[in-house]
Amino acid sequence: MWDDREQCVYYVDITSHRVYRREGADLAQRTVVHEADRAVTCVLLAQDGGLLIVERDRLVTRSIDGVVRSGPPLPADALEADPQRRFNDGTIDPQGRLLIGTLHEGDVENQERLLRIDSAGHVETLARSLTLSNGLGFDPSGLRLYHADTLRNRVNVYDYATPTPVPVRSFVVEPGYPDGLTVDAEGFIWVAVWGGSEVRRYTPTGMLDAQLPVPARHVTAAAFMGDELVITTASEGVDDPLPVDGGVYSAHVGVRGATSYRWAGRTEA
User: Fold this and answer.
1) Which residue among 89, 139, 179, 184 is the active-site one?
2) Average pLDDT, the chain
3) Three-class SS of residue 14?
4) Is 199 helix (H, G, I), strand (E, B) or coil?
5) 3-state class of 255 per DSSP?
6) Exposure pattern of 157-188 as b/e (b: 16+ CB <10 Å)?
7) Taking burial as the number of CB atoms within 10 A of a residue's CB, which of 20, 79, 134, 197 is the most buried?
């Protein structure tokens, strides 16, 4: 996540339970800004300048002065009381609410959900029967939502102009699997491809437009930093990981990102 106010990039390392911040020339300066006792799956910006951090089964906040507090309490059934289910990737909608999907670490199939959570912790289910909920992003108007259902090799498109998003179409991402995604100012969707060693750019109608090679095999997410794309990758799931696997990369792509939104809740006391 690019923070245009602080001119830095935040990203998570899920299995080390950390949120990192990179800044400076070539993003060379790296610091740990949050470390938890459980998986950290997503980091998002708040309107008051702090961070909303999604951990395995809860939300926490980090204020601009670095104080970490519990986020809004969630109902006990948010993850269906299943210890093998956790939150995964997320984004913020134009109204400042959290959209977050779920992932199951066991052998349960096709039971994952996409949730919408407001700043008070009220939870709505927007989509069910997903294989593995992953990347989320809005088009420049804020009226179209793109959402990766990874193990079906699909990015689902929703009309977000109505109180309950309405699915309108989907497009296929293969070979490889769609992981994180982001949308540029022209409305094209950039999809990080797990197992594909690239980020692919798709038109708003789902046609492949361009391919950006990445040295690592498992590409996990991408975010715009001006006209530069910052790309994260994973070493997990690679039998013989190389130094390039799990690295963070950047590339000038000649287009800027669409508007990103900030969480409406407070991160300060």
Assistant:
1) 179
2) 96
3) helix
4) strand
5) coil
6) bbebeeeebeeeebbebeebbbbbbbbbeeeb
7) 134
Beta strands in 173-258 (DSSP E): 177-183, 189-194, 198-202, 208-213, 218-225, 228-234, 248-252
65 catalytic residue (yes or no): no
Distance, in Å, from the CA atom of 161 to the CA atom of 51, rounded to the nearest integer, reads 26
What is the per-residue pLDDT across 62-85, written as a single tens digit (0 to 9) for each? 999 999 999 999 998 999 999 999
pLDDT tens by residue, 145-174: 999 999 999 999 999 999 999 999 999 999
Question: Hey, what amino acid is at 75?
Answer: P
Length of the chain: 269
Taken in order of first residue, the domains within the chain and their CATH numbers are: 2-252 (2.120.10.30)
pTM of whole model > 0.90? yes
